[in-house]
User: Fold this.
Amino acid sequence: MTTDDVPAAITRAHHEEWARVVATLTKRFGDLDLAEESAAEAFATAVERWASAGVPPNPGAWLTTTATRKAIDRIRREHRRDDKQREARMIHDDQPDVAGPIDDDRLRLIFTCCHPALAMESRVALTLRMVGGLTVPEIARAFLVRETAMGQRITRAKTKIKAARIPYRVPSAEDLPARVGGVLAVLFLVFNEGYLATGPDPVRHDLTAEAIRLTRLIRTLLPDDGEVAGLLALMLLTEARRTARVSAAGDLVPLDEQDRGAWDAALVAEGHGLVRERLATGVAPGRYQLLAAINAVHTSARDMRDTDWSQVVALYDQLVRVDPSPVVALNRAIAVAELDGPEVALSAVDRLEVGLANYHAFHATRADLLRRLGRAREAGAAYDRAIELAGNTAEIAHLTRRRDRLG
Amino acid sequence: MQYLVSVLSDSADLATPDEQSAISVFDDRLRAEGHWVFAGGLAAPDAATVVDNRGAEAMVTDGPYLESKEFLVGFWIIEAPDLDVALALAAEGSRACHRKVEVRPFR
Assistant:
């Protein structure tokens, strides 16, 4: 391999090996901090060494060995400094190893980072740092938080893991579904932050890509979990429409106006494959699988009119039973408008006002239905309210365009 | 590893007979499974006295250190290998005494 390939090899190794190196070291030394710092040092060494000596035949093994050496050096230095302090830093794993088919150090790492005793924002930050390998400045930028604040958030989370002894292990079979649900919630939040970004960039591709990459990793570790497959399919089918979803001018392009030829056919095919695979199991689908199935119906249609709306509404009916939140009911109403007309949909939407009065999509949906019913004045007021509440620049541009077209 | 499981409430009322018997069952289980260290119920915050002897002489003040809507009414100290075990026990404790609990590790 020539030295020209070194930056690419480093990037690839970082994607493929970071979580494994951190996880292996955490298992061996029982210390997340030490694992993170040593892994970062090993990658920094790789940048120097590989440029002169070439990329080693097995980059993963090279990185693990180098990181382990760095960790031992650190322990020796600290050992001399303060024995007790190091003792306090240890997170223990006294449980006997029950090496089931899903036992993997990376999986332990993910479950530790997404532990329910940590605040949601800490789980997200810690997962992106420890499992995703993003740097603190990168995570801070993604969530529009100051770097020092993000650094403190991650440090606090690591301190709690040590002090409260949050275990480094895969949860028991009985706790597993709930804990996997917690991990998926973290990844879905990262994805949505990328897809419906607050702030100047309408879509943060770095975040959607990272969420997909981590969900793929979980899928390789938990291949039989239906909701993992469902979330991955949902992300792929959403990501497939990414470029068609924002116009050159930066406006959000709604589904009915999108250039379907611009959708990523490979991502659509992969997402459809996952949805079919889950259907074939005959196991009752959970929330993510239903959302993925709805997206599969949309992405199977040649155009808006060709969409199988009765199928979409039927899937929403199932989803309402799993997740009776008003947001789901709102999305169901949007599908109902296509099947039974805007009048029926509007009365369903109006019933949701109590729970959704401050949600921009509620007002945007009402505005569109009122517009279709020719009630321009009321539609204008609803667009105004939606624009006031929306946080995404592309969405605001789209709503403004619709409002101004009312005449 | 030891954890303090604090029982929090906005009322200093004693446990009802039903709660008391559920607490006993839970305590017995803690002992049987080796989690028991110590437990106790506290008198109302009104009965508290704050003592500060950092200065020249001990200052004695009537009442609790902090007036708050919710306060400590009792606690368990449990032995558990990690937070998952401690949280599972705390969930049972909370159900038994029918009050909110806080789990905090000892150093």
Q: What stands out?
A: The CA atoms of residues 45 and 67 of chain B lie 8 Å apart. The helical segments of chain B are 17-32, 83-97.
